[in-house]
Amino acid sequence: MKQQSRIHLLTVSLVVSALCAIAVLASSPVALAQQQSGLSISAGLAQTGEPRFFAIKDARIVPVSGPVIEKGTVVVANGIITAVGTDVTIPPEAAVVDGTGLTVYPGLIDAGATVGLTAEENAGPAGGRGRGPRSATPAKIYNGPQDRPQTTPWVVAADELNPNDPRIQNWRNAGFTTALVEPEGGIFPGQGSVVDLGDERAGNMVVSLRATLGIDFQLSGNFASFPSSLMGAVSYVRQVFIDTRWYQNAEDVYNAHQSGIERPPYDRTEVVVGNALKNNELVLLPAGDKLAIYRAIRLAKEWQIRAAMYGAQEGYSLSNEIAASKLPVFVNVNWPKMEKGADEDALTLRELRLWDRAPSTPAALSKAGVTYAFYSGGLSNPKDILKNVKKAIDAGLSADDALKAMTVNPAQMLGVADRLGSIEQGKIANLVVTDGDLFGEKTKIKDVFVDGMRYEVHEEAPPGPPGGKSMPMQQNNEGVQQ
Amino acid sequence: MNATRTNAKMNALRALAILAVFALLPLAARAQDDSGITLIKNATIITITHGRIEHGSLLIRDGKIADVGTDVQAPAGAKVIDASGMFVMPGIIDCHTHIAVDGDVNEGSISVSSMANIKDVLNPYDVDIYHELAGGVVIGNVLHGSANPIGGQTIVIKLKYGAPPEELPFPDAIPGIKFALGENVKHSNFGGPVPRYPDTRMGVEETIRNAFTRAKQYQKDWADYNQRKAAGEQNLIPPRRDLQLEPLVEVLEGKRYIHCHSYVSDEILMLIRVAHDMGFKVRTFQHVLEGYKVADEMVEAGAGGSTFSDWWAYKMEAYEAIPYNAAVMTRRGVIVSVNSDDADEARHLNQEAAKSMHYGDLTENEALRLVTLNPAIQLGIDNHVGSIETGKDADLVIYNHDPLSVYAVVQKTIIDGKVYFDRNEDLANRAALAKEKQDLIEKEKNEGKPAPKAEEKENGEKKPAKKPSRKPKKSNATPQDAPQLAATEIGGAR
Amino acid sequence: MKTFSVSSANLNSTKFNLKLCVLLLSAFAFALPAAAQTSVSGVYVIKGAKIFTLAGAPIDNGIVVIRDGKIAAVGANVDVPSDAQVIDGSGLSVYPGMFDPVTQLGLEEVGAVKATVDTEETGEFNPDVTAATAFNADSAHVDVTRAAGITEVLTVPGSLGGFGGGSSTIGGNASAVNLGGWNINDMVIERHAAMELTWPSISTGSFDLTTFTFRQLPFEEAKQQYQKKVDALSDLFDKARHYAQAMQSGATDFPHDLKLEALSRVVEGKEPLLVVAFSARDIRNAVEFCEKQKVRMILGGASEAWKTIDLLKKDNIPVIIGPVLSMPQSEDDAYDSEYAMPGQLYAAGIKIAFGSFNTSMSRRLPQMAGTSVGYGLPQEEALKAVTVNAAQMLGINDIGTIEPGKVANVVVTNGDLLELRTQVKYLFIKGQLTSLDNKQLDLYNRFRARPKAATP
Q1: Closest to B462 (Cβ–Cβ): which among A220, A463, A474?
Q2: Which residue of A2, A182, B214, C377 could cross-link C343, Cys pair, CB 3.0 to 4.6 Å?
């Protein structure tokens, strides 16, 4: 062949290759997505199954981070929100959900639950925060703080996740796409992880591995074992922080000059808590009643830790003090009430007032300017979460603030605000689609998107075992006195 | 002529001025109602240090006693309490109490639990506080229980019912620590899952000696470290801070008072001996029911005695208790107070004090000192409270009869010039509180009716574990503004 | 204690007789325990005192004559027998001795020492046991208590509503006892004065001392347990009634049952039933039970009786009040509900008395009564409530007032009996002047006389 033929051949090959390339690329959704959004290739969090391209069209959208869009479209792809707005181009690979008459909210966040932790991981029959297997009837007698009673801060919720926990689906069907999942039981039960409630592999669910360090002033339950009193438990945690900081300092000194100095002993708690403090994990302090709220404020300051309080159902009576402390608050929406079959003669005005006023706490906190989030607190039926939030709205909370307490607020408090909590381009595609106002009594949830995967909600699945973090233990054992 | 007109004019002006003043007075009074000035008028004032003043009056300003005497005048705008026929005395100071504590008063698991601190668990909403205010108590020495030879750190509080926890501690009062000797710490009268050292009084002594030996070593370790650091030495790892030993070091340094629960003479002498050997002081022996046997030794050791009036024979170590205890110790020079150790008892400490006139020969003033100035001295707060003198805190109680009489009923209890208990207001508020309770019960019952939620379980931990005493008392449900708070609120709005 | 009856006539006879008498006297004096009599004639006169007979107005400047164990005469103008030992009562007051109708004095020496505790027998129902059997006449509590002016007690076996630490329902026969005498035979007034019954309570919590843990029971379950106890009690009373009927009918061919026999006295109305109950609910249930069983009920404890006044009034149930100085049962109750209750019950026409419900607190009876006066109980009724009222409730009609013919249990004080600083100067039990020496007084005297150590 002459030079002309060679060029011709080259051109043809090039054209053919290009055509082939285009053909290949054209059939690849990834490429299309690339072409559409210019984003990098997804990490492939979803496995096989439905491709994660969706658009919810002509829906009412409540981004939370901005004004409500009466009629707009949300586009998600491979787990990320790629577009939100009134003038959005829907890519051809996206399955379109007709949003007429529907409302799209950011996926709700339950800021304290044991969902995803199986019964073995969980504490106690009620699944409530409290007497875990470690503390129910202690075989071991602890003889002081050096024995590190009920202390397992190294347990990370994400490491214990069971994606087959049926509660995950229940929570999701109730509109919750995300939860702060926390280990339970003991004084230092472990570290909480922010987890998306999909049902893939456990690792796929983790959004933030070590978000919080939990503390509960849990008693041994046995007067012969330390700590048997609330003040003993408080002094123990105080000592742990002292020991941790001692260790951090000692370790630095020792590592710099190992010769000539006796090495500081290894204590797993000191190492783990030290790392948690270094990583700025949010320390959770119990606030189960008014005294505990005051105590949390006091101790957070004394211990110089970045902390939040959890429980806070009596917050209505000292919302200004809470605001002044600047501590964020996890509010337990499992409002207390009279037990069925309770001894009516034994009711006190004190507790009756609490039952009456607790649902007004969120409104009071809003008014005082406190940042707070809701958590399910031991409620076994997740549908009751919204019902209980509704009670708070009836008691004066604005619907807007109620929604914030389940979206942007927990996202911010848990350090994932750049990725969760609102419907904005670039954020994780966690959405809940309803046929009406989220807090409406007759409203049904139609679809839930978790990490961009669509879960259609049908008839409610029977609720599984209870799966929430309940109120921290009330310290009220009066013992032998003289 | 001119002078008369001038005089008339002056008179007229003067009259106008006076009229104006009178006209404005009510306004002035209203404006100054918040001035914090109160006059208690025309009572028998029992000063404790300067005898009794008949038909006396007492002026309170900014929470302090501003003036006392027979012709004290109220400035304009002062609130006036007409106390004619009544008796005013310093508020009662209870040197041994376990009220106002959230949770167990004992960290009884280990024999030295000095790391525990009552200050972490103060409960201003404990209804016992209100009951004690109704009994004339204004200040309490809130103690750890008696389960251990060395117990937790203790604190003196003013019974400011309903105030935030931070406002309870008596400002600048020296903190304390509770020691205990005898049957309770030996677990003599009950079993337990494991036997615990100490099991005898011998072991109790060794437990205390051992703790102080370690405390001294700790003191030394830190002194050494600080010295080396000050000398510029590098790469030093400090000793660990030990919350158990630090309060004991404070005892050695005289910065923390020991209040020691004790009964029989030999153990009282033991602690005096150990204190002498180890270089610390015992501030008070509590209960000290055999103090009458070793009063001289207590005086020599500089220890006060805080005792019961007439309890005895419930334990072996109380078998030789006598109601003359306070009188005997007093006569021999011990600073003696009478305490309650019990919320029921604390409501009539004035009566318990009077018993030392029956069992013993204390005079009226000596008897009243047992619950006023003497406990103030023991707690190191007698500069501020314990007697009625200008400059001291306005912590007072008003009775309708002589406080040493069994017929006396507390009318008002005042702390820092604020009325925290008022019998008339308490009586007036009862109907409203009862109605509120009934209404809330109805509401709660009706809420439960429509849809019983089968799956929703109340968290078991939230329910209080009721103390199984023979007199089931208050529920320890979420401590909260208690009903009688209304009286406080009304009293405070002045 | 021993009674002297050597007449003065003998002492005035021959030298020989005198020597003999002195010898005898000294012998007896040596042999006497500390609690000795000092009268030689058995006749006493208290002169010039203010006398509170509790059977009429007080007598300002009066005379009481005591002879042969009884009140012989009392009044403003009374003949003074020549053989009497005269006590100058100027400045002093005379009262009937006090009666503590609910105590376990004598059944327990030191509460924590089990060997000294005979308050409660094992088992749920013990109607046949009798307190007088276990009463320790030499208990240190006897002398200590009477020195405070208490001359009689009803010592009560059983749980007393949990005070005893136990949980039995029928504790046994309470015995009325004078606090003076050589031994129980000498001291007993009535062996079977009342039958103790602690009304079962609905109990939701318990503390296990062996494992140091709390145990919680749901209310519904506790209620069921309670109902079982009440049913068992009811059955027992039915059986007792049948037993009584069989005994009355003259039938002999059935086995003796000591428990049912004892309970027969109660169902036949011969012995009152002292029911210990504190809460309003327990009181109501107990009253309903006693109505149904047609027994003579005395309510003991009664903390919340102020909530059940109409019921008690309707059935004319007398009340022995225990916890006057204690906190109210509920935190929502008025702070003075216990202080004011005695006055309220009295105003409603209910007969009241005060009981210590303790082994060592009888001397607080006047304090309880006096405190109640401060909150509305009339003074005279308060005095009756620590003396004659309880005796009347128990059908013991010869003590509690100073009237001719009554047993001379009398206390002479230097002031108002109810006042805290008042001291007892003289004490008579069954007409015998009784020593006020006691363990506590001994220790007091000994140690106040201790010489001060030389200062180093």
Answers
A1: A474
A2: C377
| Inside any domain, residue A125 | yes
Chain A nearest C-alpha distance from C357 (Å): 19
pLDDT of residue C455: 55
- Residue to mutate among B137, B470, B474, B480, with most C CBs inside 10 A, is B470
Its pTM stands at 0.87
Give chain C's domains with CATH numbers. 10-97+401-435 (2.30.40.10), 98-399 (3.20.20.140)
| Same domain, residue pair A152 and A92 | no
Chain B: give the shortest CA distance to residue A430, in Å.
Answer: 27
Residue A189 shares a structural domain with residue A286: yes
SS (H, E, C) chain A: CCHHHHHHHHHHHHHHHHHHHHHHHHHCHHHHHHHHHCCCCCCCCCCCCCCCEEEEEEEEECCCCCCCEEEEEEEEECCEEEEEECCCCCCCCCEEEECCCCEEEECEEEEEECCCECCCCCCCCCCCCCCCCCCCCCCCCCCCHHHCCCECCCCEHHHHECCCCHHHHHHHHCCEEEEEECCCCCCECCEEEEEECCCCCHHHHEEEEEEEEECCCCCCCCCCCCCCCHHHHHHHHHHHHHHHHHHHHHHHHHHHCCCCCCCCCCCHHHHHHHHHHHCCCEEEEEECCHHHHHHHHHHHHHHCCCEEEEECCCHHHCHHHHHHHCCCEEEECCCCCCCCCCCHHHCCHHHHHHHHHHHHHHHHHHHHCCCEEEECCCCCCCHHHHHHHHHHHHCCCCHHHHHHCCCHHHHHHCCCCCCCCCCCCCCECCEEEECCCCCCCCCCEEEEEECCEEEECCCCCCCCCCCECCCCCCCCCCCCCC
pLDDT at B34 over 90: no
Nearest chain B Cα to A138, which residue? Answer: B193
Query: What is the band of B19 on the pLDDT scale with cuts at 50, 70, 90?
Result: low
Q: Tell me which residue range forms the domain holding A464.
A: 33-107+422-482
**Residues A454-480, mean pLDDT to the nearest whole number:** 57
Query: pLDDT digits over B43-102, tens only?
Result: 999 999 999 999 999 999 999 999 999 999 989 999 999 999 999 999 999 999 999 999
Number of other residues whose CB lies within 10 A of the CB of residue A321: 17
Interchain proximity A224–B120, CB inside 8 Å? no
A212 in the same domain as A283: yes
Q: Tens of pLDDT along A196-249? A: 999 778 899 999 999 999 999 999 988 889 999 999 999 999 999 999 999 999
> pLDDT, tens digit, for every residue of A179-197?
999 999 999 999 999 999 9
Banded model confidence at residue B187, pLDDT cuts 50, 70, 90: confident
Number of domains observed in the structure of chain A: 2
The pLDDT value given to residue A48: 66
Are A336 and A471 contained in the same domain?
no
Q: Are residues A83 and A173 in the same domain?
A: no
ipTM of this model? 0.89
Looking at residue A469, which CATH number applies to its domain?
Answer: 2.30.40.10
Q: Which of B96, B99, B101, B109 to mutate to test the interface with A (most CBs of A within 10 A)?
A: B109
